[in-house]
Design a protein that fits this description.
Amino acid/polyamine transporter I, amino-acid transport, transmembrane helix, cell membrane, mainly alpha, two-stranded antiparallel sheet, membrane, 20 helices, transport
């Protein structure tokens, strides 16, 4: 491709893009020149990437299953999980202000936990987004059949090509796409909240006669399935928040990371309060929780109860947008993760190549190709084998959170001893908040093992761990530099 420029002097172990000094030095925050990326993402785009990362099909579609399992108490599950997510994001924020790099939590795992932790985190997060991209582009193609009688493979191919080219041209286009994808999701939720508020206060539409906040406790109480039912929804809730950490991957390409990233992270509480807790309170105050079923969007069910027949079309458009947003994020993050691994001698060196616009050419192309292969596999064999791979997304996404928290705890200990520079954005209550978040994630994993629908994730994880272990042993024997502690 004519736009490719390769500068190996940036990518080598002794260059600015790779290892170069000792971990114990108080080095200043990394700049974009250190890795070759362009700082093209502005505050507006970072804010919407942060918002969009917390809003996806887990809310628009998955919440229906959660409501049927826990009733109105699902609201409490989202609120508690939201607090934990905030702890995770503040831990990530402190690390980002210590050293804002595109490799993000993979870099921090490598520096503060060990070379294998960085290796495992980078490759696991890459696989998480490849698998997610496979499923989301397939879902997007299915959503298109609501309006058009097209073979799904045509839509899937078209979406993948468009998003691939957009990500390859420049990071700014990625940011603009995420901005508008997120805007659609935000507008839909705010619109639903306003409609519900109008029904409750003014009584219009078919649901006006029964709409009341008392619906939150009148049909079997706030905990109609007991506390156990609420606990069993936590893995559904945590899955809905996967990708909120994506804002950390943008650190190396943000125009002013010292200002934009803390501001984006500090908006996490109100985002969760409005878009999850607020939206569910309003919906469940208009429609009794007993009317919701697994596999049916709570937004569609609410629109039907209100007598608004356009609801299905609106929600289909919104979930199409959410799926494309997820694919777009996958294209973006996979290329960066592969390049970070390559820069640290933990992946093929060809993944270090950038286009003249500062986008990772080979890594993005390789990942996009795998996503298309996954779509074809899903069409040909949509059975258990593919579902087992897809189920891995939940546990692999949570692995990134675990590494963020462990890295943060280790970083705090080193900073207290004066071995590394202190961050300008300290997490309140740390490191205890990070320990609490780790314990919470551990509880969720245990609950996943109890839930027969969720435990498949735990079956797939050991297989991937075995692949990583063997690969790392091969790496250590052939390239000791990649198995050494990261140096800067």
């Amino acid at each position: 491709m004519t736009s490719v420029q390769v500068d190996d002097s940036k990518d080598g172990p002794g260059g600015p893009g790779g290892p170069g000094g000792s971990v114990g030095t108080k080095a200043p925050a990394a700049t974009v020149e250190d890795q070759g990326y362009h700082r093209a993402l502005g505050a507006r785009q970072i804010q919407m990437i942060a918002i969009g990362g917390a809003i996806g099909t887990g809310l628009f579609l998955g919440a229906g299953k959660g409501i049927s399992k826990a009733g109105p108490s699902l609201i409490l599950a989202y609120a508690i999980a939201g607090v934990v997510i905030f702890f995770i994001m503040r831990a990530l924020g402190e690390l980002l202000m210590y050293r804002p790099v595109s490799g993000s939590f993979s870099e921090y795992a490598r520096e503060f936990v060990g070379p294998f932790a960085g290796f495992a985190t980078g490759w696991t997060y890459w696989l998480f987004w490849v698998v997610t991209g496979m499923t989301e582009v397939t879902a997007a193609a299915e959503y298109m059949t609501y309006w058009f009688d097209l073979p799904q493979w045509i839509s899937a191919l078209g979406f993948t090509i468009v998003l691939y080219l957009a990500n390859l041209i420049s990071v700014k286009i990625f940011g603009e796409l995420e901005f508008w994808f997120s805007m659609v999701k935000v507008t839909a939720i705010v619109g639903m909240i306003l409609i519900c508020a109008g029904i409750i206060t003014l009584g219009f539409t078919d649901a006006g006669d029964t709409a009341s906040f008392s619906l939150l406790w009148s049909d079997g109480g706030f905990f109609p399935k007991g506390l156990g039912g609420t606990l069993m929804t936590l893995q559904i809730v945590m899955f809905a928040f996967l990708a909120v950490e994506l804002v950390g991957v943008t650190a190396g390409e943000s125009k002013d990371p010292e200002k934009t990233l803390p501001k984006a992270i500090n908006t996490v509480p109100w985002r969760i309060a409005v878009f999850y807790v607020g939206a569910l309170i309003m919906i469940l105050s208009v429609v009794s929780w007993t009317n919701f079923r697994p596999g049916v969007s709570p937004f569609v069910a609410a629109f039907d109860q209100m007598g608004l027949q356009i609801g299905a079309g609106i929600v289909n458009f919104v979930v199409l947008t959410a799926a494309l947003s997820s694919c777009n994020s996958g294209m973006y993050s996979t290329g960066r993760m592969l390049r970070d691994l390559a820069l640290n001698s933990q992946g093929p060196k060809l993944f270090t190549r950038l286009t003249k616009h500062g986008t990772p050419l080979i890594g993005t192309t390789f990942s996009a190709g795998l996503m298309l292969i996954g779509v074809w596999i899903n069409y040909q064999w949509p059975g258990d084998a593919f579902n087992k791979i897809v189920s891995f997304a939940t546990i692999s996404g949570m692995w990134a959170w675990i590494m963020i928290l462990v890295s943060h705890i280790r970083y705090r200990a080193k900073a207290a001893r004066g071995e590394v520079a202190e961050s300008s954005f300290k997490a309140p209550g740390a490191p205890w908040t990070s320990w609490f978040a780790l314990a919470f994630i551990g509880m969720v994993i245990v609950l996943m093992g109890i839930d027969k629908d969720a435990r498949i994730s735990l079956y797939v994880a050991p297989l991937w761990a075995l692949v990583l272990g063997v690969s790392y042993l091969v790496l250590r024997s052939k390239n000791p530099e990649g198995a050494a502690f990261a140096k800067r």
